[in-house]
Fold this sequence. Notes:
four-stranded antiparallel β-sheet; single chain; about 425 residues; alpha/beta; TIM Barrel; about 35% helix
Amino acid sequence: MSKNHLSRRNFFGATAGALTAASALSDPGRAAAQSAGVNPADLPDLTIKEVKVYVLKPAEANTGQGGANFRRAEQFASVVTNSGIEGNYELSNRYSHSNWSNLGWLAAAKRTLVGKRVLDLPEFTTQWHSAVGQLSYASAMNNCLWDILGKAVNMPVYRILGAYRDRVRAYASSQHLRTVDAFVADVQHAKSQGFTAYKIHPPWLANNEVDYKLDIEVAKAVRKTGGDDMALLFDRVGAYTRLESMRVGRALDELNYVSYEDCLPTDDMEGLAELAKALDVPVVMGEFITSPYDYAKYIRFGALDEVRFIVDNLGGITGGMKVAQMAECFGMLCQPHNWGTLLDHAVHFHCELAMPNNVWFEMTQPMGTTDRPYFKDQLRIDKDGYVPAPRKPGLGYELDYNALHNVLDRVET
Length: 413
């Protein structure tokens, strides 16, 4: 069974779209102007006047299924140009990782951005001279600047990047539910909502231990409930030993799963290469890689079959698209992460819409988890199980500043 889902015809046909995206990354202002059919000199004044942070009032956690917490984003980055265009991205500390804290973002952004032009955004996020993983500071800046650029030409970001599609097939991405019955009920609910694909985040036991035998039972039950036509994915978040990962992987082969994500710790390249060689189900890695320059060695070593990324690790949308293009050059699929709040989904969605080598949109379960009173827009699937592209400019999901004011604690400048 071939793991390469890109045919030769599709690969070379897709490359033209990749060239458009590549030019957008190197000269985003010109790409934006060309997309909108205007002269670059006619763009509004995109000199950055100020940066600030909206800090929301403390709010109780909104507990989702299985006890997982979804906290309202507590802070939003704001970058404002001389022409009054504002770009936003969240600054919440969503993950347990040394480089995913945004404490100090405001000082870094003021030092880096004020007085500069949005059109020069590539220079603000390059990691070429850095020996460590990409800090999330640069990612939030990058995403804000793409938001501004889209608003400046009244277009959603993905169209500037080189739109490849106008919707993406969604899979319902489970919480770490605790029992087989809970997963059965969850996949039934996903099917009733119109999802045609589903991803398992298997149970965590006491002290973050795992039971691979229980995970196999969950995988079997979900296949039985979902039916043969439902595409199924599996994400263990790097918790298996090599032996456990091989046993679960062989079970997923028998059950015809289409994705086996983070089955081993990210740094176990030898173990990942063994799995990728032995299994039919594609081994998907990259969520915990913290530099766009580290992906090549995984590809060369055969330590993954499909590439995954989180833009917060990689310098924002610009870094994510670089990784997507790298994967495409090797004829590999790339499935970006889509977990968290609305803007976290949005930045990855724009990459997916511009990528020829992507299939999936990860929709956090339960659908509607990303809804907030201070956003005018929501993420939903259509009747076919796809997420339609946003139509509004920039990141495409509009902040309601009046509603935001009602939950605002302060503005830091």
